[in-house]
Amino acid sequence: MSRQRRVVLIGCGNRGQMFGGFCRDYADRVKLVALAEPREDYRVNEATRNNLPAQHAYASFEEALGPGAPAADLAIIAASDRAHHAAAVAALRRGMDLLTEKPVAHDPVLTVHLKLLAERLGRTVLVQHELRYSPFFQEVRRIVQSGQLGQVYSYTHTEHVEFWHMTHSFVRGPYGRQEDSNPMIVAKCCHDLDLIPWILDDRVTKVSSFGRLDHFVRAHKPDVAPDRCTDGCPLGDRCIHNAAAFYLGDRTGWPVAMVGTDMSLEGRRRRLHDGPLSRCVFNGENTVVDHQTVLMETRRGTLCTLTMQGFSAGEECGRKIRLDGTAGTLRGDMGRGRIDVYPHWTGPAGTRAEVQTLDLAAMGLDGHGGGDRRLFEAALDVFCDGADAALTLLADSVESHLIGWAAEQSRHSDRAVFMEPFRTDIQQQATAML
């Protein structure tokens, strides 16, 4: 029988605001009783939107999850990456279940530790791998698992990051420094590393990776450029990374909304001048890669490549995949919502079987191809109704994190990483933390 669950929201940035909106949309099933956000304007705005009294809107997750805060059944973790593990542990120890953003931690040992702790405490943890719930990737998995492609031996997966998204999030923004967040391959491609073994229903046995930070470096900074775009840069509109042109235009939704809560032109101008988003992208303050490739081998012999790069634009951006098997080929473009299946054929040369096309764009999907809302609804089925079918349990999500960290180890060592001993080593270290 369905019951309403009390929720505490940790983090009120872009993703936290989305979760707050979902809580309002499903008010018959969840009730937001407290939130935490260090930025006062974001904290006050989200508390107002959810009719929370000021005393239940906290500046830190320690307060929101402390003994003096309202009792809650579920914590939604949408804070900065470096706070995920500590906030999740605090919520678990207060007896809450979790819906947490990914990456769930900023270290492979902490990731596995969270899984072990949840198991020990008997709590359920779901991870925001919402792409598993998108109709696009669910259809890809259905086709692969149906055997329509035969045995898949080649899987190519690309994550084309638009150049403005790269500079906003991974150069100027909160994910630009690995020391403050996570490696790029974990922070941005945790999604993708989760999808590949899930679609194949296979296990990765070996990982090798190459990646570099080449373009967004101080060596490429023009001599005439100041440290901030707002300091009268003489290049002005001739620079494609001009922060003033990007954040002070007509658009006020994401990502411009991340400048601050005051979307007036003067409010944006003031916050932009004082904040990190006006910094020249060639200042050299960022440390994550701007392009990387990961090669994986699976137990059944599939060779998988994931390529992430931050120099794309327009329709070329987004996730594209190609799977080649013994009985057919699948090509998919998530941005366009299109899947083409080319079955192998018999007959004389030049005789081809008709391509089978699925067009999902007509469904008008939103939020990660419709995955955001579908995942939240599935989480409510688990937490409110006791459903046991969840696609994104932490126990499953750990694997994608470990593949990402193995890729980083390979990138730095110039050696392939064998996953079995890598997993064993991390498991032993995490167990010692309990």
Task: Reconstruct the topology from this structure.
Layout: E1 5-10, H1 14-25, E2 30-36, H2 40-49, E3 57-58, H3 61-64, E4 74-77, H4 81-93, E5 97-100, H5 108-121, E6 125-127, H6 135-145, E7 152-162, H7 163-170, H8 184-187, H9 190-200, E8 204-212, H10 243-247, H11 265-274, E9 291-298, E10 303-312, E11 318-325, E12 328-333, E13 338-343, E14 356-359, H12 371-385, H13 394-413, E15 417-418, H14 419-433
Parallel strand pairs: 1-2, 1-4, 2-3, 4-5, 5-6, 7-10
Antiparallel strand pairs: 7-11, 8-9, 8-15, 9-10, 11-12, 12-13, 13-14
Helix pairs in contact: 4-5, 5-13, 5-14, 6-9, 9-13
Explain this structure to me?
With 434 residues, this protein is α/β, with parallel strands linked by helices. The chain has three domains: 5-131 and 372-394 and 405-433, 3-Layer(aba) Sandwich (Rossmann fold), CATH 3.40.50.720; 135-217 and 286-369, 2-Layer Sandwich (Dihydrodipicolinate Reductase, domain 2), CATH 3.30.360.10; 222-278, no CATH class. 35% of the residues lie in helices and 21% in strands.
